[in-house]
Amino acid sequence: MPEKTNPSFVGMAPSGDVELGRVQLAPEVLEVIIGIATTEVKGVANTRGNFATGVAEKFGKVVHGKGVKTEWSEEGLTIDVYCVVDYGYSVPTVATEIQKQIRHAVFHMTSLETKEVNVHITGIQLEAATETV
Hints:
Layout: E1 9-10, E2 24-25, H1 27-39, E3 44-47, H2 51-58, E4 68-72, E5 77-86, H3 91-110, E6 114-125
Parallel strand pairs: 5-6
Antiparallel strand pairs: 1-2, 3-5, 4-5
């Protein structure tokens, strides 16, 4: 079975005649940037994680990269985000704002252009019913 390697982002070469070295960005860091950018959008209730992230959150650990999948290819970076929208918000408006926010955050924090930002709405978060006495 071929070994799967996580590619790293290699930064732009410094200007001038002196090369200082390589800048590498771990994929987990990129997922955290994307996760935080997603949760900052008004109307996003949360991002979808898996069983392991659910258990970690039960013990108080905040997992910012949950619900984010990144894929590197020759054409560029493809990002998939799985999230839940609050009830009452326009799904297309929230999804478009998520795309804009992710592109902005990734570019300004890493100088990396994204090929695609795919937003997958996995549910609607209804307001919790309040009991009246």
